[in-house]
Every structure is written in C-alpha cells, then in structure tokens.
Amino acid sequence: MKNVRKFIIMLQSARLIFLGGALILILALTHACSGPAKQENVEASEKNVTPDLKWNGWSYHEVESDAHGILPWYDPAHLGRSYDHVLDLVWNYWVDLPIMPNGYKYYVQFRIANAPDQEKGADEGGLGGDQIGMAMSSWRLYYAYTGNKALIADMKYMADTYLDLGLSPADYSWPNITYPCNISAGIEPGEAETSGTLPLVYNGDTRDGVGVTQPDKAGSFAYELVMLYEMTGETKYLEAAKKMAATLASRVVPGDAEKAPLPFKVNAETGEVIAPYTSNWVSTIKLFEELTRLGEGNYSDEATTMKEFLKNVVLPKHKYGPFFEDIIGYSETSINAVTLAMYILQQGAAWGPDWQEDARNILAFCKEKFSIETQAYRKNRYGVEYQAGEFKKLYNVIPIAEQTAYMIAGNSHTSRYASIVLMYGEKSGDTSDEAMAIRQLSWATYMVKSNGQNCYPQDGAWLTDGYGDYVRHYLRAMAAHPELAPDNSNHLLSSSSVVGDISYSDESIAYATFDARSSEVFRLVSKPVRITVDGKKLKTHEYSWESLDVGGVLRVSSEKGRNRVIHLRTKK
C-alpha cells in the first residue's frame, strides 16, 4: 500500500463547505475535561523507561526479550500494563492533532501524520481508505474500556464531518453513500497539498478520480453509524445509515470469482463499474443484519447473498483482495482474510457446521502467505536505510505483512492477526498458537513512540495503521484473553450489546447497554461486592468470577435491564 505510486491525482474542489466551530469546540473541551478513567499505571512510566531511540525502520525502543522471545515495550514484566499504556499514548496523539487553517482536524483530511523524525511525513494528502470507519470502530471499544467521553465526542465529530462533506447526491445512480477520499489534497510526494488551506470535501477515489466511490468502505462507515446511534440515541446517524444500506442493498447480486456482489469501485453518478471484485464485505453484512434486527428494514436476503459469496467463492479460492485505496491492480490482503475469520468466530454455529474449520483455514492461509520471519534491508525513496529485521531469529516472533503488493510487516496487520488467533483459541479451545500471538502483540508496541506517534515499519506514521486500525486489535485480544488486560485497573473488555454510557470510580462501574439482554466481560482488581441491574441485585447464576494471580475476570449475563452497576470493594 505505502510506496506504490504510479501517477498523480490533483483535482481541485469547486465548492467550499464550512463546518461550524461548535463541534470542534465541544471536542476540545471534552478532551480537556475528561481524561481516562484510571491513572494507576502512570507512575511506573518515566522512571523505568529509557528515552526513545532513533527510528531504525521498525522500533523506537531497545527490544526486551526473555527465553521465550520478545516482550512488550514500556513494562516488560506486565503485558497488560504495556498494552494499556500504548493505547493511551496513541489516542492522545490522535486527539491532539491540530485543527488546520480550513477549520477541520488534521485526521479527517490526511492519511499520514507530519512526524518530524520521519522523512515520509505529511507529503501525501488525502484520507486513507476506511480511515474514519476504522477510528470509529476503535473508539467505540475504547470508550467502553476507559469511560472517556472525549472518544464519543470524536466519533460524532468524524461522523458529522463525513456526512456533511462526503455524500453522493440523492439523484445519482449510487445515491447517499460516502466517497472514500478528499482527492483535491493529492497523494503524490512533493505534489500533495497538505497545508490544510483547501476547502475540505470528500469527492472521489485516490487512484480513479473524482466521482468514484468504494461501496465496501461506505458499508463499513454505515455500520459504525448504526453503532453510534446505539451509543448516543441520535437518530440522524441511524437515518443516514439506512439510506446507505438502501443504496447498497439495491445493487446486491450473486457474486463469482471475477465479480463480487457489489463492486470494489464504481462511479457514483453514472453507475460505471471501475473494479468489480473485493472480498471486504463483513461490515456491510453486519450493517444489513443489524438494521434487520432493529426492525429498520429487512435485508436478510442481501446478507444471505453476500455470505454465500464468502462461503462459496472467497473461502475455497482464498481470494481475499483487494482493500487498499492506493494500489493499482489486484492484491491479496491479510485485512480482508482476518476480518472474515473474526466474523466467522463471532457467528459461531450460525455461520454453519464448519465454522471452526473455516476460521482455522483462513488463519493458516494468512500464516503461510503473510508471515515475515526476516524483513529485508531496504532503502526508501528518500534514501533512508532501514536495517534488516531478524524477527524470528532474534526475538522468536513472526509478524504479518499487509498484502502481496506490499510485503512489509505491519503494526496493524500483526496485531489484528494476533487478536483473532486469540479469539480462535477462546472459541475453539485450540491455543497452540497463543504464545506466538502474544509475542506478535508485544512486537507491535515497539512502533509507538513515547509521544504516541505510531509508525508503520519502514514507512511513516499512518493514521489508519497506527490508530483506528490498531487500538481495536488490542482490545479484542484482551476480550478473548483477559489475562492480557492490565492487572492494576478496572476495565470492561467486551459486551454483546453496545455500551452507550459508562463511568468508572473507586466505588463502582456504572454502565448502560443498548439491549436489555447482554453479556459483559470485565478485568477487575478485586472481586465485586455485588452487581445490580436496574437497581435489582443479580443472582449468582447470572454472573461468574474467575480469580487470577492479581484480581480476576467478572462475567455478567442478564436479560433484566439496561442500567447496570458493578459495586466494588473500596480500600479502607
């Protein structure tokens, strides 16, 4: 994805659209007034951590290891505290990115952070593929984990900006869906416009120009809009998602090896198909399924058609491409493959009798296709030399590459693969690859600088791979394997229903779920005193406690109500 550059797209927007300053002000005030709910592991920080090293192509830090292999950066003796720390760093780096002269935050218009120590800084304009949808996905999970309301404010800011400036007109062949990129910012080094002075408008595709959209990315964003509605109760997000779903559903056809049920790229105005195939349909299926569950339309047939395509075409042929907006031609991708494995594991028996075998085969394919035991020495286009990464030999870890067109081990792709290997172990009982998955998570912490800058190996600080497509993988890993969550603070790790309001204190964790029937998993520092739902104490069969070396894991399952409180033991 990162260095494939063949031609220049420089198209200027003909219209000027302004976003009122109120939403940005709310975001800034919320961030200033609402920090993470816990601060316990900050004190270990500065005295135990050596200063950042010069970037060597994949690490900012001296690598820690033991007899088994690599340990995480920051606090090698405590996996969970290390992972928790890097998530906090990258979130704060993201939310502190500046408002540009055109009035919009940096991260809603550019794909690479302007990192002073990276020659590849903000010289490539335009949004990254699925950048907003990825960030909303991560922040939704991270809000439940932290209770930091600035995350919801940021989700709303991104959603509102994208809806205001990125929808195809209602009279187009493909109406009311988002364009993936603000291509007036350009993409080519030295040619891009990254001053933030141009009017912001999302109006096309990075490679194929004005008017071209990617339906899979629209489906991903629409699904996150439904989740945001369930978090906030704001129906504008649901209504926008319904319009996108209606457009997508009206175009679904049975797919084959050359043509997916929906095209990868299409001209929204004319309906001309630019690229007919991608396998990235999990979020669109989930969009159809969730709207159907909510009674907001019936998309069961469309969801079934797309799942049959995944089962009968994608899986047997292992045809898992493409995904990325800046690639010319076809490329197999680890993101599409592993995301499908995740969906299969979440579906379980509802996917079919072969759900475990299907998920296992996908992970085995990715292990064979994308493993990077040694990252070769290379010199980038600026003449910067990157040392070879002897990952397997020196650290007993095998990271995962992005795609066949760019076989560079990635922070996002390695952590995603690791999290779903752990999910597979949780669901199937087969934990044979668990230790390697944990080392993979630890490997991906070394790309995070102490200021939260998160760089793709041998590349720049991508705002996809280092942020929205990074945080969620650690949270899913903790949900599948709660021992990986920090042992010195309390966190909600997973919920079967969207969590729209949660607050952490020394006395309790109070939260509200969208559905009355919901199950949650917590990592707590001590066993709770009691659990209440809508003010009534849960019976012992409605929750369980598993003790760990420090604290333990609380699992709650109730059908009685939405407002839930975990009453904690307080220190005397």
Number of spatially distinct domains: 3
CATH class of the largest domain: Mainly Alpha
Helical percentage: 25-40%
Do you know the CATH topology of the largest domain? Glycosyltransferase
| Beta-strand residue fraction | 5-15%
* Major sheet: 5 strands, antiparallel
Number of helices: 15
Q: Which architecture of the largest domain would the CATH scheme give at its second level?
A: Alpha/alpha barrel
- Output the radius of gyration: 22 Å
- What is the tally of beta strands? 20
**Distance N to C terminus:** 55 Å
- Biggest sheet strand order reads 13-14-20-16-17
Mean pLDDT across residues: 89
Stretches where pLDDT is under 50 for at least 5 consecutive residues are 1-47
Overall shape: globular
What would you note in describing this structure?
With 572 residues, the protein is an alpha+beta fold. The chain has three domains: 1-33 and 98-331, Glycosyltransferase, CATH 1.50.10; 49-96 and 359-488, no CATH class; 491-567. It contains 15 helices and 20 strands. The strands form seven sheets. Strands 13-14-20-16-17 form a five-stranded antiparallel sheet. Helix 1 (22-33) packs antiparallel against helix 5 (150-165), helix 6 runs parallel beside helix 8 and helix 8 packs antiparallel against helix 9 (300-317). The longest helix has 18 residues, at 215-232. The radius of gyration is 22 Å and the shape is globular. The termini are far apart.
